[in-house]
Design a protein that fits this description.
The chain is an alpha+beta fold and 206 residues long. The chain has 5 helices and 9 strands. 19% of the residues lie in helices and 33% in strands. The longest helix has 12 residues.
């Protein structure tokens, strides 16, 4: 489609749906943008993929969430940084990344409890079964929205420095510095009544 065509560095475009799914299954945050009466608005939102839809959620009191629930036209971006590309010039230096753009109108997820389950398990693996059930008040104050993964583009930068031949003898290191998300050691809440098993960083590392 015209608006999903990758024009800048089109050689980085990837049209394999499985690669999009892999990115969305790893990412934790999406940036969702709309244009309303006050102008452009872009906000970060926790996200998770549920089959052929992307889920985000927020407060029913949020202006953005209400606009999305009403079917506002939107653009959602999801990016994961995989590394820094150190070239021999600043101009040729870059990043390794995977970045998706999803177009389409969000709608309230048809099964809100299921959608909350999917989001919670994506963000906090193994946590849903340990928690108390959401209260009616909490459910009334939260809205999970879903957009179909039908109109999207994906760019993947996974290359090496592309220096000019004249720069190859520059006496500096060139290569890739990998980047990944790693959770730290758990910190007990100050009001924890008694010691409880904490999540394992090894399980949560993405």
């Amino acid at each position: 489609m015209e608006r999903t065509a990758v024009r800048r560095l089109p050689e980085l475009a990837v049209d394999e749906r499985v690669r999009l799914d892999d990115l969305l299954d790893e990412a934790l945050v999406a940036h969702v943008g709309i244009v309303d009466l006050h102008g452009p608005v872009v906000l970060p939102m926790a996200c998770a993929r549920d089959g052929d839809t992307l889920l985000v959620h927020g407060s029913t009191g949020s202006r953005l969430v209400r606009a999305l629930a009403d079917g506002a036209a939107t653009c959602t971006t999801v990016t994961v940084l995989d590394g820094a590309i150190y070239a021999r010039s600043a101009f040729s230096s870059s990043m390794r990344y995977r970045s998706a753009v999803v177009y389409g109108a969000y709608r309230p997820a048809p099964d809100q409890l299921h959608a909350l389950h999917v989001l919670t398990e994506h963000l906090l693996p193994g946590r849903w079964e340990e928690l108390r059930a959401p209260t009616a008040k909490e459910l009334a104050g939260t809205l999970v929205l879903a957009v179909a993964l039908e109109e999207w583009s994906l760019k993947v930068s996974d290359g090496w420095p592309e220096d000019e031949p004249a720069d190859l003898d520059t006496p500096v290191w060139a290569g890739v510095l990998p980047c990944r998300t790693v959770w730290g050691e758990p910190l007990d809440a100050p009001d924890l009544v008694q010691p409880r098993p904490a999540p394992s960083p090894a399980v949560l590392t993405r």
